[in-house]
Amino acid sequence: xxxxxxxxxxxxxxxPLAERFAAAKKAGFDAVxxxxxxxxxxxxxxxxxxxxxxxxxxxxxxxxxxxxxxRGLGALPGREADFExxxxxxxxxxxxxxxxxxxxxxGVAPAGADxxxxxxxxxxxxxxxxxxxxxxxxxxxxxxxxxxxFPGYHxxxxxxxxxxxxxxxxxxxxxxxxxxxxxxxxxxxEQSLRDYIDIARHIQIAGAPARHEPDxxxxxxxxxxxxxxxLGWDGWIGAEYRPKGDTVAGLGWMKTLLP
Length: 259
What we know:
By secondary structure, this protein is α/β, with parallel strands linked by helices.
């Protein structure tokens, strides 16, 4: 049976972040993703999780200066110290939340930067993060983002993510397989599931092209959910979308799209 988690930085935005854990639980989600919990304190987060009784699956490393267009620090030259500090922050939050996955965001490399050199920086930072989290049991994830929503993002292709994962060669580094981003970049969703499920540790979904509910747009999730079940996926599927209207009112897809 497929299991869905709510991505509460996007969903349940009718209430403040600290209240979204309980809102997700009330709506039927036993687990949540909170990509950026850093606007609330660790103590506030822990209290909200305990009160709601939800499992926290996933967090992201900090973006850096988002207002200036930064979308992560993992692959940025000259920002290694900032990445290290940001990863430690995400690690502190993840350990406090009992969260076992952290998405290491690559970021937007400077214009004209050599891609191979950027890869070298990214790999070095990933290895440092793996070392820093060695005794935690936390898995680090790489995710490809789409070129439309995140222009210039370093990690766009599934083949690129696999290459880095295999180069690092650590069982605690896996793939965050986002079908919305894949649709915007390359499509071919069924085959991408078949080809990359072996390195996937987490799957994410949203409707395309507007990133609303999965039953809105061009992706046939009912069909893809059948493929995911066929492949024997036993992990979580993160609903990482922007509700078109009221979050709870839009949750009908959880029944209508299931195989």
